[in-house]
Design brief:
Number of helices: 10
Structural class: alpha/beta
Largest sheet: 6 strands, mixed
CATH class of the largest domain: Alpha Beta
Bound molecules: adenosine-5'-diphosphate, magnesium ion
Number of domains: 2
Radius of gyration: 18 Å
Number of strands: 10
CATH superfamily of the largest domain: P-loop containing nucleotide triphosphate hydrolases
Oligomer: single chain
Distance between the termini: 33 Å
Helix content: 40-55%
CATH architecture of the largest domain: 3-Layer(aba) Sandwich
C-alpha cells in the first residue's frame, strides 16, 4: 500500500527524517512511535506532500507520489489529521467538513473561489459525503452545532471525519487521542478498528499512549533522532533491547 524508500528530510543541517525505509500493508493498523522531535510528524508531512523529501522515494499503491503537492496526494487517497486541527469556531461542524474537504483537495483558496459555480453543483455531493463521515465517527447529532460549542473529544472526532471526507485509502493520524481521557481513548481505538474493518482502510498512527498502541497496532515503527531504530509487531518492539534503551527505558 505505502512504500517509503530511503527517505531523508533535512531542515538546514538537521536530518529530521534520516534514510527511513518502511512498508505499510493494506488493511492494517500501523503505528509510529518515538520521543518528541524524533521526526514522526515530519514523516507524515512527507507522505502527504506538505514537505518534499530531500532524497528518497514514496510510493502509494505502486505510484510514485514523491514530489506531488498535497492536494494531489489527497486525491490519490491519503487522508490525514494534524496534531492540532484548525477549525472554524463560529461555523457548524458540517460546514467545517465541507470547507475542509475543499481546501484539502483543491490546490488553494484561489481554486476554490474561481470554481465556485461548479462547486455549487458539487455542494450536495459534498454535504452528503460530510454527513456520512460525521455519522461514521459518531457526530451526526452535533452536525449543526458550532465548533465553539462542542467538547474536546468531539473536536478530535471532527479531525477524524475531516480525514475520512476525502475518501482516503490510507489515513495518517497524528496523535489522535492526545489529551483525551482513558475512557475516550478506548472509543478512539474502537473507531480506528472500525475504519479498517468496515471501510477497509489502512491506518497509520502516531501515538504516545503505549497501552493503546500495543493492543491496537499490527505493526510498529520506532523513530529516534530521525532514524528508524526498530520495526515489528508490538511483541517484537516491546522486547527489542534497542527500543528499551532508546525509548521505553528512557
Ligand atoms: P515529532 O513529531 O516526532 O515530535 P517532528 O517531526 O515534529 O517530531 O520534528 C522533528 C525535528 O524536525 C525536530 O527537531 C523539529 O524541530 C524539526 N522540524 C520539524 N518541522 C520543521 C520545520 N518546518 N522547519 C525546521 N525544523 C523542523
Ligand atoms: Mg509530532
Amino acid at each position: 500500500m505505502l512504500k517509503v524508500e530511503n527517505v531523508t528530510k533535512m531542515f538546514g543541517g538537521l536530518a529530521a527524517v534520516s534514510d527511513v525505509s518502511v512498508e505499510f500493508e493494506a488493511g492494517r493498523i500501523n503505528a509510529i512511535i518515538g520521543p518528541n522531535g524524533a521526526g514522526k510528524s515530519t514523516f507524515f508531512n512527507l507522505i502527504s506532500g506538505l514537505h518534499q523529501p530531500t532524497s528518497g522515494r514514496i510510493l502509494l499503491d505502486g505510484v510514485d507520489v514523491t514530489n506531488l503537492p498535497s492536494d494531489r496526494v489527497a486525491r490519490l487517497g491519503v487522508g490525514r489529521t494534524f496534531q492540532t486541527t484548525n477549525l472554524f469556531e463560529q461555523a457548524t461542524v458540517l460546514d467545517n467538513l465541507i470547507v475542509g474537504h475543499r481546501l484539502r483537495t483543491k490546490s488553494g483558496l484561489w481554486d476554490v473561489l474561481i470554481n465556485s459555480k461548479r462547486l455549487q453543483r458539487e455542494e450536495k455531493a459534498a454535504r452528503d459525503k460530510a454527513m456520512e463521515a460525521l455519522e461514521f465517527v459518531g457526530l451526526a447529532h452535533v452536525a449543526g452545532q458550532f465548533i465553539a460549542d462542542i467538547t474536546q473529544e468531539e473536536r478530535k472526532r471532527v479531525a477524524f471525519a475531516l480525514a475520512l471526507a476525502t475518501d482516503p485509502k490510507i489515513v495518517l493520524l497524528d496523535e489522535p487521542a492526545a489529551g483525551v481521557n482513558p475512557e475516550e481513548t478506548v472509543g478512539f481505538a474502537a473507531l480506528m478498528r472500525k475504519m479498517v474493518d468496515e471501510k477497509g482502510l489502512t491506518v497509520c498512527l502516531i501515538e504516545h499512549k503505549m497501552d493503546m498502541i500495543m493492543s491496537l497496532a499490527d505493526k510498529i515503527m520506532v523513530l529516534d533522532h530521525g532514524e528508524k531504530i526498530a520495526e515489528g509487531t508490538p511483541e517484537e518492539v516491546r522486547n527489542n533491547p534497542v527500543v528499551i534503551e532508546a525509548y521505553l527505558g528512557g
